[in-house]
Each structure stands twice: as structure tokens, then as C-alpha cells.
Write a structure and sequence with these properties.
It is an enzyme of class 1 (oxidoreductase). This is Homoserine dehydrogenase. This protein is of the alpha/beta class and about 425 residues long. It folds into three domains: about 170 residues, Rossmann fold, CATH 3.40.50.720; about 160 residues, 2-Layer Sandwich (Dihydrodipicolinate Reductase, domain 2), CATH 3.30.360.10; about 80 residues, Alpha-Beta Plaits (2-Layer Sandwich), CATH 3.30.70.260. It is built from 14 helices and 17 strands. Strands 7, 8, 9, 10, 11, 12, 13, 14, 15, 16 and 17 form an eleven-stranded mixed β-sheet that branches. The longest helix is centred in the first third of the chain and has 18 residues. Bound molecules: L-homoserine (HSE). The site of L-homoserine has 11 residues, from helix 7.
């Protein structure tokens, strides 16, 4: 049978890794795919590739790859939003299948891209867009197809997890660890995408659609970064038996879908709390299987290439399958997508860690607990740190409550004359049910 011809656009970290894995493991890969896979052309900007391109056809015009009549599969590894979108749409218009590692592209333009692909009878595969080398998309879309997924929670940004781990284990400063993560090549070109939760929200948007069969709605995701987490809060959380992780959480509720990325206290002894450094992990709760956990490298040249190449193999295997028998892009048949709303964060529910700075005076806490009581907020634990100062930090854990009630309570407590400054609030998830 004729070999399948691939064009790679972008020869940076992931592109170089993909080239190396595809060439090094060519024989083994063709035994799995049932066809030989050859790299026909590479579109790249750099004159200094990280791999040996001798004998390769290269071009600096990536659109030449997307329109090359010889090419069956275009692999988009340039990243970013607009040029990547134009490239992928051009490839689809030209009847090419597409493999991409681009989470921003899928989260923001995925609905339009999948519709175009459906009309042209081509596939768009995007395993590498979420959690690098972890086959989480395949797991949710195929392995868990029997389940009603209740919720999933993931550490899906390696840079953020690396920073939180170093801050907790070594007491290092936020900015210093971020610099190291950038030097190690984990961080996005714009590292605010990592630390403000945008990268994680891209990935969570994709996972949420796959889990619940809803269109991609990145603009409805709530994002909160880690730059305001202090070593002090990390220590207090430890004292209470919790660890602070930057989590992406999506949950099906009676009212709609929660879609949120924020720092979260989780019990110290759950597996997710022990995922450290740059590693990623996603915990999925399904009604039939219960909880399953997927762990592995979320970034890196060959780890991400592992997912890119697996997608190429998938596309090759299904080249002969008719379109109605392919795995749908968003796990559910396009005509069966649900219109369940994505909830605003005020309508989501969680428990809370609160840290407030109170004047050391009898009766102050009574005012605070009265306000919480009036809003129906149950206190789970309370610690007042000993001090010789005139003011004292008070740390509280509450039970679950709708966020709008907590917002009201915080506003009223901050207005008390004996409460100083802003209250620090971090959501808490037990990840139990
Ligand atoms: N910047 C991302 C991370 C890389 O830190 O996880 C993989 O998407």
C-alpha cells in the first residue's frame, strides 16, 4: 500500500521531537499503523533545526505545506491563534487531515474547525493539546465512553505546578522559580498564560467539552492565577492537612456546567496533591468506573511528540473508515451536543479557606462568625495564630457554599472596623464525590 505522507508545520520543541520520534521509530510505527508514514515536507522558520534534516524538503512558507497535493496529513505545531487557524482551515479546505498540539487554537476556534472538517470529511486530531504526553483525550473520548462523567479535576499546567512545588518544598520566591521554568522550556512564550491560568483554561475547555458533550466555550471559563499565593498560605494549608494546587475543575450540576481554573486546597493525602514538579495529572469521576487518575509529563519535546505521533497513527488507521464510523471530534456525535449552560463562577459551589487579619480584641471573631452564619456558611475549622502584635491572622475552613453567598459574606466581613485589609480566599475541594 502507498505510504501516507505527512507535512510538518513548525519545527520548534514539539516539531523537532515529532520529527525525531517519527524517524527513529518508523518501522515500529508502521507495524502499528498498517501503512508506512513518511515526512514529505517541513514548513519552518528557523535555520538551526534541532534535528537532522538531510534529504528533507523544507520551506519557509507553511501554507505551501497546507496546499501541497502530495500531502495527506498536515501537522500544525506553530502554536498561537490566528495564523494557526488560517493554516488549519487551508489544510482542511485542501482535503488534508490535521494533527495539532495547539490548545489555544482548539479551545478558541475548535467549533468552527470541526464543522469545516466534518463538511470536508477529514479528521482533526488534538491529543497533544492537553497534558502533553498523557493520552487523556483518548481516555475520555473512548476509554470512558460508557460513563456519565460527573466531574474532572486536573493539574494541567506544568509550569504552574513546578512553581507551586518549589515554593512549598524549598520556600522559594514565585518570580525566581518562574524564571527557572522559562529557562527549562516549560513555560509558554507568554508566561502569564501559565501563571494566570489561561493555558490551563484552554486545556480545561477542551476536556469539559469531551466529558459533557458541549461546544467549546473558552470565553465562559473562569480563570484565577497563582501569582497572589503566598508561602504563608501554603504553610497554613499544610497545618490544616491540605496542599495548594492550581487546578482546572469542570463539573456537571443540575443547573449547568462548572468550568473553572484557580488555586485550590486539596487534602494532602489524595494522589493529586502529590503530583509534583512539572508533571500533570487528571482525576476523572465517572458514574460507572468511579475515579481514575491519569499521570505523566505535560510538556517536553518527545513526551508531547508521543501524543502527536499517536494521533498521526490514529488518522492513518481510520483513513479507510467512513465518516459516520469515526470517533467524533468532541466525543459525542455533533448532532447530539448538549446546550447545558456553562455557569458563571458566582453560581458554582465549593468550600473555602479564608485568611483574615483581625485586630486583637475580644468579640471580633463573634462578628465574623455571625456574618457567616447569616449567609448559611458552616465553619469547618478555625485557627487563630498566636502573636504579640496588635493584630492577628485568623484562618478558617468553611463547608461548601454557593460562591455568591461567600462573596456577600466577604464583603460584609471586610467592612468590619476590626478586620484589616482584604480577606484571602482560596477554594477547597475534597475530590471525594
Ligand atoms: N506551558 C505548558 C505547561 C506547556 O507548562 O504545561 C504544555 O502545554
Amino acid at each position: 500500500m502507498k505510504p501516507v505522507k505527512v507535512g510538518i508545520c513548525g519545527l520548534g520543541t514539539v516539531g523537532g521531537g515529532t520529527f525525531n520520534v517519527l524517524t527513529r521509530n518508523a518501522e515500529e510505527i508502521s507495524r502499528r499503523a498498517g501503512r508506512h508514514i513518511v515526512i514529505e515536507q517541513i514548513g519552518m522558520r528557523s535555520d538551526n533545526p534541532t534535528c537532522d534534516l538531510s534529504g528533507m524538503q523544507t520551506t519557509t512558507d507553511i501554507f505551501e505545506v497546507a496546499t501541497n497535493p502530495e500531502i495527506d496529513i498536515v501537522v500544525e505545531l506553530i502554536g498561537g491563534y490566528e495564523t494557526a487557524r488560517d493554516l488549519v482551515m487551508t489544510a482542511i479546505e485542501n482535503g488534508k487531515h490535521v494533527v495539532t498540539a495547539n490548545k489555544a487554537l482548539i479551545a478558541v476556534h475548535g467549533n468552527e474547525i470541526f464543522e469545516a472538517a466534518q463538511n470536508k470529511n477529514v479528521m482533526v486530531a488534538f491529543e497533544a493539546s492537553v497534558a502533553g504526553g498523557i493520552p487523556i483525550i483518548k481516555a475520555i473520548r473512548e476509554g470512558l465512553a460508557a460513563n456519565q462523567i460527573n466531574w474532572l479535576a486536573g493539574i494541567i499546567n506544568g509550569t504552574g505546578n513546578f512553581i507551586m512545588t518549589e515554593m512549598r518544598e524549598k520556600g522559594r520566591e514565585f518570580a525566581d522559580v518562574l524564571q527557572e521554568a522559562q529557562a527549562l522550556g516549560y513555560a509558554e512564550a507568554d508566561p502569564t498564560f501559565d501563571v494566570e491560568g489561561i493555558d490551563a483554561a484552554h486545556k480545561l475547555t477542551i476536556l469539559s467539552s469531551l466529558a459533557f458533550g458541549i461546544p467549546l466555550q473558552f470565553n465562559k471559563a473562569y480563570t484565577e492565577g497563582i501569582s497572589r499565593i503566598t508561602p504563608q498560605d501554603i504553610r497554613y494549608a499544610e497545618e490544616l492537612g491540605y496542599r495548594v494546587k492550581h487546578l482546572g475543575i469542570t463539573r456537571r450540576t443540575d443547573k449547568g456546567i462548572e468550568l473553572r481554573v484557580h488555586p485550590t486546597l486539596i487534602p494532602k493525602d489524595v494522589l493529586l496533591a502529590n503530583v509534583n514538579g512539572v508533571m500533570n495529572a487528571i482525576l476523572v469521576d465517572g458514574d460507572a468506573v468511579g475515579q481514575t487518575l491519569y499521570y505523566g509529563p505535560g510538556a517536553g519535546a518527545e513526551a508531547t511528540a508521543s501524543s502527536v505521533v499517536a494521533d498521526i497513527v490514529d488518522v492513518v488507521r481510520t483513513l479507510t473508515a467512513d465518516r459516520d464510523n469515526r470517533v467524533p471530534h468532541l466525543a459525542f456525535q455533533p448532532s447530539a451536543l448538549s446546550d447545558a449552560p456553562v455557569l458563571p463562577v458566582e453560581a458554582t459551589t465549593s468550600a473555602y479557606y479564608l485568611r483574615l487579619q483581625a485586630v486583637e480584641r475580644p468579640g471580633v471573631l463573634a462578628y465574623v462568625t455571625r456574618i457567616l452564619g447569616e449567609k448559611g456558611i458552616n465553619i469547618e475549622a478555625i485557627i487563630q495564630k498566636q502573636t504579640t502584635e496588635a493584630q492577628v491572622p485568623v484562618i478558617m475552613l468553611t463547608q461548601r457554599v454557593e460562591e455568591r453567598m461567600m462573596n456577600e459574606a466577604i464583603r460584609e466581613i471586610e467592612a468590619l472596623p476590626d478586620i484589616l485589609g482584604e480577606i484571602v480566599r482560596i477554594r477547597v475541594e475534597l475530590l471525594a464525590d
